[in-house]
Amino acid sequence: MSKSLDVYSDLVAEGEEIDALLDHLTDEQWQLPTPAPGWTVAHQVAHLAFVCHLAATSARDPQRFAEYATQAKNGFQAAVDAALAQFLAAGPQAARARWREELAASVAGLSEADQKDTVPWLVNPLPPTVLAAAGLMEVFAHGQDIADALGVRREYTDRVGHLAWFGVHTRDFGYQAHGMEPPREEFRFELTAPSGGTTWTFGPEDAEDRVTGPAADFALLVSRRRHHADLAIRTEGARAKEWLGIAQAYRGPGGAGRKPGQFTS
Fold it and tell me: CA 242, CA 22: separation in Å to the nearest integer?
């Protein structure tokens, strides 16, 4: 990935782009269903507030984060549902304000942390930049759900370079989610930036299995916001072809994902 990409400033920019979609929404628009079953636009924003709160707490209050981690082990979904209920109770505008506050706090906390050290996270400690990339994936993915609910076609930027890196390095999550043994062999990834001037490459050049295509489509693939049949991602090799159907850049169940032809963009 190009070293000119700054994950912290890009996380801020991605958040601002999604936040701008929320300007002037009516009460009815806040309650529009998104592609995530049972979640409205307001639910998506409340979820982002919760995730950013976790990241900010990880960077600034490890002891408090340890309490969250314990709760997660005893039932993560219950903890998520409780947080959503809390953030939604005050209304969608309050959830939006909380998200903006927590996003700023998480970026500040992670960028101020020792960049050579790690911060605690739910499964394993992570370098601050990696947790920021995970946060960018969250904003990208849930922002896509919001855009889809509002009928907005997004213009993707080279910020997806972070998601290309993150999706490559979480390749095995899809196998784990399906109870499959990840292959030992590395894949070759060649992903083109939206600007067209850069191709991000990962893995050995002579790998038998290859994944190529637009980096934005790759981000949509590993965030499971589009079905692979609707993306310009191409594979070579049986293992890469199999991975295409299970790809995800987050731990746990992959969910229903999206159906072929569900979206035209």
Answer: 37
